[in-house]
Amino acid sequence: MGQGESTAEGGVQRETKTCYYELLEVDMGATQQEIDKAYKKSALKYHPDKNRDRDTTPIFQACQEAYSVLSDPHERQWYDDHRDQILRGVNTEEAKEEDSNQITPSDLIQFISPS
Question: Which of 9, 64, 90, 104 could disulfide-link to 85, CB 3.0 to 4.6 Å?
Answer without folding.
Answer: 90
